[in-house]
Specification:
Layout lengths: L1 H5 L4 E2 L1 H4 L10 E3 L13 E5 L16 E9 L7 E8 L16 E5 L2 E2 L6 H6 L4 H4 L5 E9 L8 H4 E8 L5 E3 L11 E3 L4 E4 L9 E7 L13 E8 L4 E3 L13 E16 L4 E18 L2 E3 L7
Length: 304
């Protein structure tokens, strides 16, 4: 992959930046530089820029058990990878009943039974049937939780807990556009960076924009001991000019992953609130790109 980075032409015409910025008419050239200060002693940084993350704050509510449906596209040229799982949190209180040593609950989303944590390796190796999990996105889905220890003599009204939750539409990044291998790793200027995606008018939770840099550089020396993540939440209206602080401390020509995600979450009390169960749905798309900080108009070259 390193070979790919080094084949990128440093001089970039306006068409490269047009998908990322509001100034497509400016021809530019990258001036490669490495920031040299105490920042390089930083091991990790994880900052949320949004003052209010809304519904997504509920993800951090402690729970004993969880069920997840996920649709992920790890780069623009890959197919969507679907997975689901149902498991027990490792930090479950030791004072809870010994029966919680295994997951005592089964979960269905509409009529689809979610995989137990024992099957997670299988779901990670191969995407679950697209026609199954894909049918849940963009709809109100009924999640039913059943205690496997209950006998058949117990009526479904007392043994099942049901919650209806909207599962947002599959998310897709429209711009910057990557349609071929040659389009991979677009050069994007950190200011006035416009991101476009398919809006979901029924998603009231907004979309999360996550920028991750782990020290990889398109040019120059990598910095493998550094990990930076910046997160913002914006309305799900299909486009946003990104907050330039998402790219704080990431140097010129740093190779970053931009993740766009949306989802929903519900926390449920079971058996007179003795157990806490979290239901989570999510869809995300990842765009790898090269961050550009230092550009200069070609018209200025004659003055140097």
């Amino acid at each position: 992959m390193r070979v790919i980075y080094k084949t990128i032409v440093v001089i970039a015409v306006s068409s490269i930046f047009a998908s990322c910025t509001q100034e497509p008419s400016i021809k530019s050239i990258s001036k490669i530089s490495i920031k040299k200060d105490n920042f390089w002693n930083l091991q990790s940084s994880d900052i949320i820029l949004a003052k209010n993350v809304g519904k997504y704050a509920d993800i951090y509510v402690p729970s004993d058990f969880y069920a997840v449906i996920s649709a992920q596209k790890n780069d623009p040229l890959q197919d969507v990878f679907y997975s689901s799982y149902n498991g027990k949190n490792k930090n479950i209180a030791e004072t809870q009943s010994s029966q919680t040593s295994t997951n005592i609950f089964s979960v269905t989303a509409n009529t689809i039974e979610l995989k137990t944590i024992d099957d997670i390796q299988i779901s990670q190796k191969k995407s679950e049937k697209e026609e199954d999990l894909s049918s849940l996105y963009g709809k109100n889905v009924k999640f039913s939780i059943r205690n496997a220890n209950h006998t058949q003599s117990v009526s479904s009204s007392t043994s099942d807990t049901t919650v209806s939750m909207y599962v947002p539409e599959l998310i897709e990044i429209f711009s910057p556009s990557v349609l071929t291998k040659e389009d991979m790793y677009p050069l994007c200027y950190y200011e006035n960076f416009i991101l476009r995606w398919n809006a979901d008018e029924n998603n009231e939770n907004g979309v999360a924009i996550i920028v991750t840099w782990t020290g990889s550089m398109a040019f120059g020396q990598d910095h493998p001991n550094i990990s930076i993540r910046r997160t913002d939440v914006v309305p799900d209206n299909g486009s946003a000019v990104l907050n330039s602080h998402l790219f704080d401390d990431i140097p010129d020509t740093g190779i970053i992953l931009l993740t766009l995600a949306r989802g929903n979450v519900e926390n449920i009390g079971l058996q007179d609130n003795y157990y806490k169960y979290q239901i989570l749905s999510e869809t995300h798309a990842v765009l790898p790109l090269i961050l550009i900080r230092n550009i200069k108009k070609l018209s200025d070259e004659s003055h140097d």
